[in-house]
Structure formats: structure tokens, C-alpha cells
Amino acid sequence: MFIVGLTGGIGSGKSAAASRFRYHGVNVVDADLAARIVVEPGRPALAEIASHFGNHVIQPNGHLDRAALRTLVFDNAEERQWLEQLLHPLIRQEIIEALAASAETHSAPYAILESPLLIESGQSELVQRVCVVDIPEILQLERASARDGNSPEQIRKIMDAQLSRAQRCAKADDILDNGGTLAALEQQVDDLHQRYLQLAQSA
Ligand code: ADP
Question: What is the pTM of this model?
Fold first, then answer.
């Protein structure tokens, strides 16, 4: 199946673009969802995380305490690397399975992999084409902090840990400019959808 990777920085409008692709009947596999599934209660990764970091990263209801884990690894490169080495292969496998199911569950001849770290994590190897949602940083700060209720400083920290706007755009085959209205974004997605239908057919 022809697969397009959809990426962009925090608050750029990935989810907004993805929901328009879904509107066209395209299966959108969400890398963030895959990352949550692999640490669900009962999954081996959760037990490994608990034995490495201690039980305080597990909530009373048995689910991973993501905020506690994030605090532990955010400023600790070694621990972050340990966690990434555990989780990245599992997330990748989860994504591969969800993409493989596209042909059975959806009529569209291509699927989308939505991932904030598509390029950084090497998940771009799973796709034939990279589509970047691009917005000016000032708008990104504004929209992400309004959505999450975080301060612009907190959003800035996350942005600094991601690829820069220029680095990301340099890897793009297609760019969705989300500096305008939602309707303008949707129009661009509609046009790209037509293009992807053609590309999928000739692939
Ligand atoms: P991402 O998934 O890349 O983090 P979202 O799609 O959640 O970003 O968009 C971030 C926020 O900005 C959301 O609250 C969303 O509703 C809003 N948003 C997205 N695109 C636009 C737009 N073109 N105009 C106004 N608000 C937008």
C-alpha cells in the first residue's frame, strides 16, 4: 500500500489535516496512539518500565503515569535513550500492523501515518512520501499553548527538542501551509488527496 507520512511540529495542525484526510475515507494511523498502546497494562513494556524506573511511574489504576515518566527522562539523555530503545521497535511494529490493516478496513488506495517525530524517529522509512504541516513559529506557540493550556515557554521547550521548521521542510515532498484559516488548510488537503490517489494508482 502507498503510505504518506504526515508530520509537523507541536500545534502545527497535524490533527486538523489528518481529520480532513479521514473525511475522504483515508486510514490515518496515529503514531502517538501506537505509542500509548505499547505501554498499556498487560503489555510487557509496562512491566519493564516499572522495574527500571520504579513503581511510582505506575498509577493506582495500573496505567503508566506519563507525566511522571516524562519528568524523569526529559532532562536525562541516558534514561531517555534507554526508554527509546525499548519503545521505538515496539511502536514501529504496532504502526506496521495498523498500516497493513488499511487495505482491509478502508477503501482508499493509500494510508497516512501521522507522527510528530516521523523524521526524527526514522519512521519515515515506512512511508513513500513525506507531507509536512508548516506554520510560522509565532502561530505554533499561540495555537499549541491555547490548546494545551501550557505557557508559551513550555511549548518553546518542546519545540526546541523537535526538528527546526527549516530542517523539517527540507525533508518534505509536500507542504501544507497552515498559516491561514482551517478552511484554507482543508482545501489544500483536498487537493493533495487527489494527487495521492493518482500517485497510489501509479505506484
Ligand atoms: P498538532 O496535531 O500538529 O499538534 P492541531 O491540529 O491539534 O496540531 O492544531 C493545534 C491547535 O490549533 C488546535 O486547537 C486546532 O484546533 C487549532 N488549529 C489548527 N489549524 C488551525 C487553523 N488553520 N486556524 C485556527 N486554528 C487552528
Answer: 0.93
Burial class (CB in 10 A: 0-12, 13-18, 19+), 149: exposed
CA-to-CA separations, 129 to 2, 89, 94, 126, 149, in angstroms, rounded? 9, 21, 20, 9, 33
Alpha carbon of 16 to ligand 1 centroid (Å): 6
Pocket, ligand 1, Cβ cutoff 6 A: 8, 10-16, 143-144, 147, 178, 181-182, 185
Between the CA of 12 and the centroid of ligand 1 the distance, in Å, is 6
Cell of residue 116, nine digits = 510528530
- How many CB atoms within 10 Å of residue 175? 16
Q: Which CATH architecture has domain 2-198?
A: 3-Layer(aba) Sandwich (3.40)
- Looking at ligand 1, which atom is closest to the CA of residue 178? 23
Q: Tens digit of pLDDT for each residue in 69-115?
A: 988 998 899 999 999 999 999 999 999 999 999 988 988 999 999 99
| pLDDT tens-digit series, residues 41-74 | 999 999 999 999 999 999 999 999 999 998 899 8
